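Re: How this chain folds, sequence and tokenised backbone to follow
How to read it: Take the token row as a discrete description of the fold.
Start of record: The labelled sequence and token lines come straight after this line.
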Amino acid sequence: MQSLTLSATDHAPRHLLCLGAHCDDIEIGCSGAVLTLLAQDPGLSVTWVVLASNERRAAEAHASADALLAGVAKRTILVQSFRDGFLPYHGAAVKEYIETLKADTAPDLVLTHYRHDLHQDHRLVSELTWNTFRDHLIWEYEIPKYDGDLGNPNFFVPLEQDVCRRKVRNVLASFPSQASKPWFREDLFLALMRLRGMECHAPSGYAEGFYCRKAVLGGPGGRARSSRSR
């Protein structure tokens, strides 16, 4: 399989925006890719945004992000308190908040939820990401769940095995509030990465899958970017 790279100086993202509806979504969906990008470019700046939380889960989210982004000099962790499961019913307020992110950040790469995720909160975040960041490179990540809504990703980030282990250790250690859920297990998280690794023939056997709906190779300034018009 032919590989593309974002690690070259003139193509690498400088600012990464990670969007998650819930406190563990970014970690489960794309923290392996985040760790891989940070290893390629320790100077990368990161804005990490969680939309739905309560007091306990907000503390977990901050601790998790701090652990994953340790050593990142330019990082911003934002955890909001919108009601879990009700984001579409607070759509105007959520949209206004995400619009403030566009005013305050200039990301080269946005990581967000899969457009066809069956969780209503996830789906809204994806829709508002595309609505707001209309000329950006966007990767949509996936979350395994009871709904059985996993699709066929068309973009893969191969992961080293130590990155997979760090990702899973962090998820399990950082979110004790989720430990009683029968799906919140090491074998499930590793199984999905193993499946995606098989699909893209990753050297380690592990990868994260994404949906990259639009991209331009060698756009203005030489960087990969989305091609969606304004």
